[in-house]
Amino acid sequence: MKQAVINPFALALDFTSGKLEPATTHITRHLSHMRNMYIDSAAEQAVLTREDPLIYEVYQYDVPNENGQLISCTTILYPGRIGDEYYMTKGHYHEKADTGEIYLGLRGNGKLLMQVGDQFSALDMGPGTVAYVPPYWAHRTVNTGDEPFIFFAVYPADAGHNYGTIEQEGFQQIILEKQGNPVIVPSPRWKNA
Ligand code: PAN
Ligand code: ZN
User: Which residue has the least CA distance to atom 1 on ligand 1?
Assistant: First the structure.
């Protein structure tokens, strides 16, 4: 199949704010967009009766959805918790499962959770961390610090996002704050729990 030939371009990325300019897509994910993903439903409900906090934003520069093209994007994951659980992204598998992704930490600290089958991985990320998400692994990030956790990502433009599996099954492990520190604990919602 003949692919699009597009022109070379450069984007400007602000390491402090995470803004990518220009961006063709800007996603803002509030708590109400990720119902039932946090473990403490009562805490979630209590927060939602007061406010609908912004959990994270994504700035993305789109290119044709074709094999060979690469998407650039940044994620700005704000600090905070729902109950004891740190703010996190929804997490997803790629729809075209045999596509990987590279994350580069720019600011703040967090964890990159990954899973495939019964396997699970949690990598620490900070400024300068280059983390590889291999093909087939679901991935979610968690902000374990007290400032925005910002990272840049590059992934194949035809990868697509499968959110449904994580919405139903969650992740095997979750990250909770205990006495001021992040701890990784098995998720009571995981199907084998
Ligand atoms: C990232 C994520 C981004 C937001 O760019 O899409 O961090 O997380 P969710 O997509 O899980 O809401 C990426 O992995 N793209 O493929
Ligand atoms: Zn991805």
Answer: 153
- 115 is written with which tokens? 């899973």
Place of tokens 């701890």: 183
Measured from the Cα of 141, ligand 1's closest atom is 7
**Residue 66 and residue 23 in contact, taking contact as beta carbons nearer than 8 Å:** no
Structure letter (DSSP) for residue 73 = E
At residue 158, what is the residue type?
D
- Report the Cα 131 to chain-centroid distance in Å: 13
Model confidence pLDDT, tens digit, residues 117-166: 999 999 999 999 999 999 999 999 999 999 999 999 999 999 999 999 99
Among the listed residues 140, 44, 45, the one whose alpha carbon sits nearest the alpha carbon of residue 85: 44
Q: Which of 56, 62, 69, 57 is nearest to 24 (CA)?
A: 62
Plot region of 58 (φ>0 → left; ψ -120 to 50 → alpha; else → beta): beta
- Which residue's C-alpha comes closest to atom 10 of ligand 1? 91
Banded pLDDT at 1 (limits 50, 70, 90): low
**Residue 161 CA, closest ligand 1 atom number:** 16
pTM: 0.97
Q: Which helix (H) or strand (E) element contains residue 119?
A: strand 119-125
Element holding 154 (H helix, E strand): strand 149-156
Q: Is residue 96 within 6 Å of ligand 1 at its C-beta?
A: no
